[in-house]
């Protein structure tokens, strides 16, 4: 093949390649939802071991409305429980209204029976509350 025919074949090949279908641009991948955390520990004063099947339930709740049940924003369940128990509550910051009040509550249950719970409010996130809290629970006396 002479030089002229090689150039002609190359030009035709390039022209045909240019006429081919174009690749669709890749759809942008959605950004992962932003998340934030409230961290802390939960413990109790009594020097007793918890039953092996006890469970710690820690919740981030909206406690703004005094005459309505609180709304759970995030929850973590920990079993088996060893105190002090570290927790991390992951939540969507878009759910937080700076005009509202938020708190963290904790309780220990065994087979539906409440053993320990928080008896004071632990404010977080808004109105001067931070994103870390240490909770001391109170023993629930059975009758």
Automatic annotation (TrEMBL):
It comes from the Bacteria. Residues 1-23 form the signal peptide. InterPro entries: Lipoprotein_YbaY-like (IPR053196), Pilotin (IPR039366). Keywords: Signal. It holds the Pfam family YscW. This is Lipoprotein-related protein. It comes from Inquilinus limosus.
